[in-house]
Prior knowledge:
By secondary structure, this protein is an alpha+beta fold. The chain has one helix and four strands; from the N terminus they run E-E-E-E-H. The structure holds zinc ion (ZN). Zinc ion binds next to loops.
Amino acid sequence: MNMVQMKCQNCGENLELDLDHLTAFCPYCGTKLLIDPDSIGDLLIAREKTKQKQLDSAREMDIRKSACRDRRFAKTFIIVTYVCFFAVFLLFMFFFFRVFFH
Length: 102
Ligand SMILES: [Zn+2]
C-alpha cells in the first residue's frame, strides 16, 4: 500500500490517500477526489524503478550464486579426477609388484 499526501480540492484538509485507488472521498466534506496522475506519476515511476532495481539485484545475486556453485563444482571435479588417477596408479603399482615379486 502506498500512501500519498494531498489536499482536498474542496475544503483544503490534508489527506492521506492510498495510491492503489485513483479515486477517493474526502472524510471531512465528502467530496469525490480525483488523484491527478501527473502529481503521482513521479511517485509511481519511482516505485516501479525501485521494484525493477530489487528484481535486478535479485537476478544478479542468482547469477553470482550459480557462478560460485559452478566454480565449486569445477574444483570438486578436478580433485575427484586427481584422486581417481592416483587410485588407478596405486592399483597399477599393486598389480605390477605382485606380478614381479611372486
Ligand atoms: Zn474535503
